[in-house]
Amino acid sequence: MWAWIQAIDRFVRLYILFFPVSCVLLGAASVPHDLTAGQLGALVAVATCFQIYTYAFNDVIDLSIDRINPARRQDPLVRGVLTPRQAVLIGVVQPLLAIPLTMALGAGAAAYITLAASFALMGAYNVWGKRCPFPPLTDAAQGLAWSGLTVYGAQAIGVTPTWLTWWTAAYLTVFTLLFNGIYGPFRDLTSDFAAGAKTTAIVFGARPASAGSGRHVPTAVSVYAWFLLAVLVGMNAVLMFRNDFHYGTSTWVLTACIVGALNVWAVLLQPQVLHPRESATDVAWRLQMFILMTVLPIAFFASAGAGILLTLAFLNALALVLFDCTSAVTRWAWGIIGAVGLVVHEEHGPPSRITHAD
Question: Model pTM?
Answer without folding.
Answer: 0.86
